[in-house]
Amino acid sequence: MKHNSKPVKVGSSIVGGSAFTIWAGPCSVESLSQFRETASQVKKLGATGLRGGLFKLRTDPTAFQGLGREAFEIVKTVKSEVGLPFVSEITDPREIGDMLDVVDAFQVGSRNMHNYALLKELAGVDKPILLKRGFSATFKEWMLAADYLIKGGNDQIILCERGIRTFETATRNTFDINAIAMAKLETPFPVLADPSHGTGQARLVPAVALAAAAAGADGLLIEVHPDPAHALSDGYQSLDFPTFAKLMGQMPKLLHALDRDMAAL
Length: 265
Prior knowledge:
Blueprint: E1 8-10, E2 13-15, E3 19-25, H1 32-44, E4 49-51, H2 72-82, E5 86-89, H3 96-99, E6 105-108, H4 116-122, E7 129-132, H5 139-151, E8 157-161, H6 177-186, E9 191-193, H7 195-199, H8 205-214, E10 219-223, H9 241-257, E11 261-262
Parallel strand pairs: 3-4, 3-10, 3-11, 4-5, 5-6, 6-7, 7-8, 8-9, 9-10
Antiparallel strand pairs: 1-2
């Protein structure tokens, strides 16, 4: 499997090439103390980037929708303290201007992969785009979504496989290892794997994360929370610090067998 994808620079981190990057953080930024603690711990354990939701698209309208703009200063404060770049989902083209000085990359979530109006707007932004696969999208549809960004002038694209909806009900989604291998063979883009959404169960995340690395992924986008049982969103698929630490201890051993290394700060 090739690992010579065109590298994409996200703040101080590089996604693509031979080094394996870890982007970790909570599903949602809930408070300064929660995000500060999480960011500090994941950096200590080897993460080279932060993830966290500001605006959340939720199936249930009564579910936590994110702090929105209230989280901007929290993120800026924590980013300056830990010195790691930050990626977050954008849910509306009207948010682009406000988020420009908060995020180092815009994430297009699964529900918005088919939002071509949003893709057209992001095509004109000089920041990387983390393009998640739609939960019912074919591989070709995913690639055509990337073409919207390229056609508009933005080729700073990072693909992210996050599982698709199938007849299986034992897990939240069916994580498509095939798509990672295919994307590495047929596209110039780096590919991240999101085993958190791909499984929907924290107990399955480490095994699927290792499998994604073996299949050729360039890194992980993974949910970590200091107290998953009391998370305001997706706690059931978020790793606690000890579990994340164990995974971060296992990953270099696997990568070494594949003649690869973890990305360094």
